[in-house]
Amino acid sequence: xxxxxxxxxxxxxxxxxxxxxxxxxxxxxxxxxxxxxxxxxxxxxxxxxxxxxxxx
Length: 56
Fold this sequence. Notes:
It contains two helices and no strands. By secondary structure, it is mostly helical.
């Protein structure tokens, strides 16, 4: 193998390893039930206020 090909293979392995680590970190960051339900309630309230103003 020539030197350039070895560098490319090492870079590809490093990229795949980094991607897998980031994907694992993203999977562990699950939002809690209370946080998600609070956001949904806020969005619903904003929607209702917008519709009320739209009808006037």
